[in-house]
């Protein structure tokens, strides 16, 4: 089987292909001067895409990633459906439809945080994007999704996978934490899984977000005096959540504080801000980022195996 990728998920696609011992191929991607995207499946890939199921690895981030993913899925559907007619009349124009066999693997699902209608009139962006993607593939794998509930009831099967086992192993060998902290209630499942694997103490903070840049962490007595603490979250964007949590930990006597996440978005100088508050920042390869130290390949491969086991082809 083959792993395909466009412009935004190459490292993760390569790691996945290595894990599964499958071939990895690039889809041609370009950008026109006006910023619009162009994608094309190279001629020498057409047979491979038609002869076996394919896994396309692509992020829906930034916005151009959504368009690129949709265009790549459209082109793969046409190739598998045998729709090859082209104005230059290159190659066979029409072939048999080879049937279902397109899986989309999303390392970072952009818009995942707009998973509810918080105020009247809002779009549930995560759901809207998922529905567009589901219409063009036969199954979806999502890597450390912010809140999986939003993808319930999609028209295709979905497998959720997580890099917490690899993140735990990485923290254990490089940091050896005594304490794992979830910076809010939303990250409790993820962070407690890490604490369980490492076999160390765990707690969480109560976070109230006032706006994108203002966060209040409720004071809470944590047993962190003299301890090495790792804060585990699904994503770090501005770094505000981690900086506030690190502040709370230092105030309560933590000697070393690390930040670990699946998705290193690191927007607006986040890394520079973070290193004033924490001793280390650790992220996976789901997004291109300067703190990519944990391979997402094994987790994505688990998701692929789980989904392929459920599908009947
Ligand atoms: C929110 O619930 C997420 O899990 C993260 O905690 C949040 O998105 C991180 O954002 P920032 O780094 O901007 O505080």
Main attributes of the structure:
313 residues, alpha/beta, Rossmann fold, 2 domains, six-stranded parallel beta sheet, 9 helices, 31% helix, elongated, binds ribose-5-phosphate
Topology of this structure?
Elements: E1 2-5, H1 10-20, E2 23-26, E3 28-31, E4 37-40, H2 46-51, E5 54-57, H3 63-80, E6 102-106, H4 125-134, E7 139-143, E8 158-161, H5 164-174, E9 179-182, H6 188-198, E10 201-204, E11 207-211, E12 214-217, E13 228-236, H7 240-251, E14 256-264, H8 270-274, E15 280-284, E16 292-294, H9 297-310
Parallel strand pairs: 1-2, 1-5, 5-6, 6-7, 7-8, 9-10, 9-13, 13-14, 14-15, 15-16
Antiparallel strand pairs: 3-4, 11-12
The structure holds ribose-5-phosphate.
Textual characterization of the structure:
It is built from nine helices and 16 strands. The protein is an alpha/beta fold and 313 residues long. It folds into two domains: 2-162 and 297-310, Rossmann fold (3-Layer(aba) Sandwich); 164-294, Rossmann fold, CATH 3.40.50.2020. A six-stranded parallel β-sheet has the order 2-1-5-6-7-8, with helices on both faces. Helix 1 crosses helix 9 and helix 5 (164-174) crosses helix 6 (188-198). The mean pLDDT is 96. The structure holds ribose-5-phosphate. Ribose-5-phosphate binds next to strand 13 and helix 7. Ribose-5-phosphate (R5P) binds at residues 113, 183-184, 186-187, 233-241.
* Proportion of residues in β-strands: 15-25%
Helicity level, as a percent range?
25-40%
Low-confidence stretches: none
Overall structural domain count: 2
């Amino acid at each position: 089987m083959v792993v395909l990728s466009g412009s935004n998920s190459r490292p993760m696609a390569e790691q996945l292909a290595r894990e599964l011992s499958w071939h990895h191929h690039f889809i041609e991607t370009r950008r026109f001067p006006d910023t619009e995207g162009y994608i094309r499946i190279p001629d020498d890939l057409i047979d491979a895409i038609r002869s076996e199921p394919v896994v396309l690895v692509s992020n829906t981030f930034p916005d151009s990633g959504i368009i690129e993913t949709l265009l790549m899925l459209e082109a793969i559907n046409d190739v598998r459906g045998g729709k090859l007619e082209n104005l230059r009349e290159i190659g066979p124009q029409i072939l048999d439809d080879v049937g279902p066999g397109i899986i989309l693997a999303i390392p970072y699902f952009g818009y995942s945080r707009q998973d509810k209608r918080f105020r009247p009139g809002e779009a549930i962006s995560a759901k809207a994007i998922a529905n567009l993607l589901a219409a063009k593939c036969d199954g979806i794998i999502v890597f450390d999704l912010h809140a999986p509930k939003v993808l319930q009831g999609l028209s295709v099967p979905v497998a959720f996978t997580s890099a917490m086992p690899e993140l735990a192993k990485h923290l254990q060998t490089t940091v050896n934490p005594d304490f794992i902290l979830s910076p809010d209630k939303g990250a409790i499942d993820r962070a407690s899984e890490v604490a369980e694997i490492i076999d160390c103490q765990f707690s969480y903070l109560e976070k109230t977000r006032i706006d994108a840049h203002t966060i209040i962490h409720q004071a809470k007595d944590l047993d962190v005096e003299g301890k090495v603490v790792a804060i585990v979250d699904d994503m770090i964007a501005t770094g505000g959540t981690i900086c506030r949590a690190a502040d709370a930990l230092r105030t309560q006597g933590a000697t070393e504080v690390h930040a670990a996440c699946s998705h290193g978005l690191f927007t607006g100088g986040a890394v520079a801000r973070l290193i004033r508050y924490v001793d280390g920042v650790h992220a996976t390869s789901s997004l291109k980022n300067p703190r990519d130290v944990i391979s997402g390949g094994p987790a994505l491969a688990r998701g692929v195996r789980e989904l392929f086991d459920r599908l009947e082809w």
